[in-house]
Amino acid sequence: MSIAVQIQYAVPRINAPLQADFQRWVEAALLNQSKAGEVTIRVTDENEAAELNRRYRRKEGATNILSFPFEIPSCVPFDIPLLGDLIICAPVVAREALEQAKKEQDHWAHLVVHGVLHLLGFDHQQEVEAQQMEALEVTILESLGYSDPYESI
């Protein structure tokens, strides 16, 4: 598996994870699939996250993470190895970690795993889907040495 993880910082890198951390979390979330490709992670402020949330989800305010799976247009006759983009709002991550009494790094790891699972087609709109996705998140995070992110919620 060869996954390139591109990081874009729209905010200062203060308290943001290292490139190596992002890479490790993305690879773990790929569930040992033989996927090759690229994931772009953009670390934003609340204004950008709120604008994207409004434009693409029609919801007001910044959210912690947005996932945009890449879909190959039908007119393209070959495979393009892009998995998609994750938009992570650094101030929301920091605030949620504090509110939930979690280490900020643990929350970043959880959100990256969560977002990559969305890029792979997992969802949590229905209760059964949510249970399956959360169980996968817990398993992946435990394999990385993190505790269950849903225990303290």
UniProtKB/TrEMBL annotation:
PROSITE patterns: UPF0054
Enzyme Commission code(s) on record: 3.1.-.-
Cofactor needs: Zn(2+)
Cofactor annotation remark: Binds 1 zinc ion.
Subcellular location: Cytoplasm
Record GO terms (molecular function): metalloendopeptidase activity; RNA endonuclease activity; zinc ion binding
Gene Ontology BP annotations: rRNA processing
Residues bound to Zn(2+): 114, 118, 124
Main location: cytoplasm
Keyword annotations of the record: Cytoplasm, Endonuclease, Hydrolase, Metal-binding, Nuclease, Ribosome biogenesis, rRNA processing, Zinc
Assigned GO CC terms: cytoplasm
Family membership: Belongs to the endoribonuclease YbeY family.
Role of this protein: Single strand-specific metallo-endoribonuclease involved in late-stage 70S ribosome quality control and in maturation of the 3' terminus of the 16S rRNA.
HAMAP family attached to this UniProt entry: Endoribonucl_YbeY (MF_00009)
Stated name of the protein: Endoribonuclease YbeY
Gene: ybeY
